[in-house]
Amino acid sequence: MAKSAKLKKKKEAAAPAGKSAKAVAKRKEKSPPKGKEKLAGRLRGRIATKAQPAKAKPAKAKPAKAKSLKERKYVKFFREVRVELSKVTWPSREELIQSTIVVVIAVAIAGTFIAIWDAIFSKVISLFTG
C-alpha cells in the first residue's frame, strides 16, 4: 500500500463517526486556541493589569473607638454562621414529619430490643447469684 493511502486511512479512523477528516480539520481551525496559546493570552492580560501604577489610596478616618479583637472574632463568627445557614437546604414540612416518624419508630424498636435482652440477662444472672 502506498504511504498516501495509509495516511488517508489513519485520518478517516481518527475522524468521529459520520464526519470526514476535512470537516474535523475545519472545525479545529475555527476552534479557540487551546493550551499554551490560551494561557499566554491570559497571562498577557494579567501582566498588563499588574504593570499599571497603583493609585494612591485616600487616608481613612480612624473610628472613635476600635473594636477589641475578641469582639471582631465574635462578629466574624456569627456572619460566617449566617452565610453557612443560608446554604443549607431545609426540609419541607412533609419531609420533616416523615423523618420524625421514622426516628420515633426506630427508637421504639431499639428500646424494645434492649429491654428484652436486659430482662433475659437479669434472669440468667439471678439464677447464678441465687
Task: Explain this structure.
It is built from 5 helices and no strands. It has 130 residues and is mainly α. Among the domains are: 18-50, no CATH class; 91-129.
Structural class: mainly alpha
Number of helices: 5
**Averaged pLDDT:** 76
How large is the share of residues in beta strands?
A: under 5%
Ranges where pLDDT stays below 50 over 5 or more residues in a row are none
Q: Round the Cα radius of gyration to an integer and report it.
A: 36 Å
What shape does the CA trace take? flat
Helix-residue proportion? over 70%
Q: How many strands appear in the DSSP assignment?
A: 0
Biggest sheet overview: none
How many angstroms does the end-to-end distance come to?
Answer: 100 Å
Q: From N to C, what is the helix and strand string?
A: HHHHH
What are the salient characteristics of this protein?
flat, 130 residues, mainly alpha, single chain, 72% helix
Summarize the helices and strands and which ones pair or pack.
Blueprint: H1 3-14, H2 21-30, H3 36-51, H4 69-87, H5 93-129
